Amino acid sequence: MIAIVDYNMGNLASVKNAFKALGHDVVVTSDPDSFRNYDKLILPGVGAFGDAMEHLKERDMIEALHEFSQSGNYMLGICLGMQLLFESSREFGVHQGLGFIQGHVEGFHTSRFSHPLKVPHMGWNRMFTTDHPLFENLDEAHYLYFVHSFHVTCKLQSECIGETEYGYRFASAVAHENILGIQPHPEKSHKNGLQILENFIRL
User: Fold this and answer.
1) Known catalytic membership, residue 198
2) Distance CA 121, CA 58 (A)
3) Of the residues 24, 79, 148, 176, which is catalytic?
4) Radius of gyration of the chain (CA)
């Protein structure tokens, strides 16, 4: 059984509908005590990192997420949800994250270029992936839909399982044991995104 974590920071309906399109029912829960009842968790998110961590704290979800992460069951962070898996973020100040994956969140380095990158990075772009079960039945490079102004930097390159180029390459998919994250929105990425969610179901 899969649950989507509701902490008032994301469009949960579109994620739930994507699983429904695959013929798989999921539960949306805002009850941290219920997390242990599920085989897998989805941590979505849209908005600012600091606000998201505050919402998780107010709802007593941080300890419950840590407990779930230690269970060995799979957790998938999507977009902001992926960024929350890291140790810290420099988005509008310095904020502590969940710390499941070593590394931090930073803004795009627009000053590197004579013609600055447009931020947010929005639209279809390719993800270049490693051989990981999350990307089974997908080409090594496949298009997914992105909307974000910040990206993660992994301390351990081995935990980066997908990269995307926007001015330079950045980590767009990560994995640390049972903790997974993807920067693009699979629920908005049509066939490729649905394949990723189906692969997550099968893990």
Assistant:
1) no
2) 30
3) 79
4) 16
Report how many domains make up the chain: 1
The answer to whether 154 is a known catalytic residue is: no
Tens digits of per-residue pLDDT, 67-100? Answer: 999 999 999 999 999 999 999 999 988 999 999 9
Phi, psi dihedrals of residue 182, rounded to the nearest 5°:
-135, 135
CATH code for the domain of 67: 3.40.50.880
Q: pLDDT, tens digit, for every residue of 164-184? A: 999 899 999 999 999 999 999
Contact 108, 148 (CB under 8 A): no
Q: Of 151, 187, 190, 198, which residue is the catalytic one?
A: 187
Residue 76 β-bridge partners: 42, 180
Structural domain harbouring 6: 2-202
The yes-or-no answer on residue 104 being catalytic is: no
Which one from 160, 185, 190, 198 is the annotated catalytic residue?
185
